[in-house]
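We were asked to recover a plausible sequence for a given structure. The inputs and outputs are reproduced exactly as logged, with field labels preserved.

PROBLEM: sequence recovery
POSITIONS: 201
GIVEN STRUCTURE:
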């Protein structure tokens, strides 16, 4: 224990757990709207948003990775497996941020006819920050997908993750757009997910 303290001083551990980027993610669950306002007040540079976009792309890649590892068709051929993972990582890093910026613009354009008052920067920040806040849930769902690909636990966590993310996104998005309530957006997101799931099934 003393050896660990020499490598990681207590003040470093305390600052990592109680302040900083990782701590902000978990503290956001206490007040989603306030967490967005804190992000808006403290970080107003486009470079920060770009870093967020790359972080989200890596998180989404890691969320998919356990499913790729346990996929028998891919795993049975190691060359195909490493090629598949490498291509996935490449597309996540180089095209993921572009796709995220595009989606953030679409969400803001959707809000404009309903008198959304966010700037494009605020809309991007709200979109990115909502995914970052939900990233622990996404990683947990991805891990369970790898451990229990067809299990009841994964299905339950997947449904819970969708509901939680819809709640997180609608709350932060509506805070950015100055909407009175986030419930209509929350219901629209869940309805859209159920409709798309029905079409895929």
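RECOVERED SEQUENCE:
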């Amino acid at each position: 224990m003393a050896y660990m303290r020499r490598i990681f001083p207590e003040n470093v551990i305390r600052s990592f757990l109680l302040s900083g980027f990782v701590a902000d993610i978990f503290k956001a669950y206490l007040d989603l709207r306030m967490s967005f306002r804190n992000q808006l007040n403290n970080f107003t540079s486009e470079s920060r948003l770009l870093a967020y976009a790359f972080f989200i792309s890596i998180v989404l890649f890691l969320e998919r990775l356990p499913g790729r590892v346990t996929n028998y068709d891919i795993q049975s051929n190691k060359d195909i497996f490493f090629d598949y993972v490498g291509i996935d990582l490449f597309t996540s890093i180089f095209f993921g941020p572009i796709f995220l910026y595009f989606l953030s613009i679409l969400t803001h354009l959707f809000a404009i006819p309903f008198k959304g008052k966010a700037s494009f920067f605020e809309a991007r920040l709200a979109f990115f920050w909502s995914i970052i806040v939900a990233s622990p849930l996404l990683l947990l769902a991805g891990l369970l997908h790898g451990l229990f690909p067809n299990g009841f636990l994964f299905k339950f966590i997947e449904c819970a993750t969708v509901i939680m993310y819809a709640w997180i996104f609608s709350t932060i998005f509506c805070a950015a757009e100055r909407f009175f309530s986030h419930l209509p957006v929350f219901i629209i997101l869940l309805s859209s997910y159920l409709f798309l799931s029905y079409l895929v099934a």
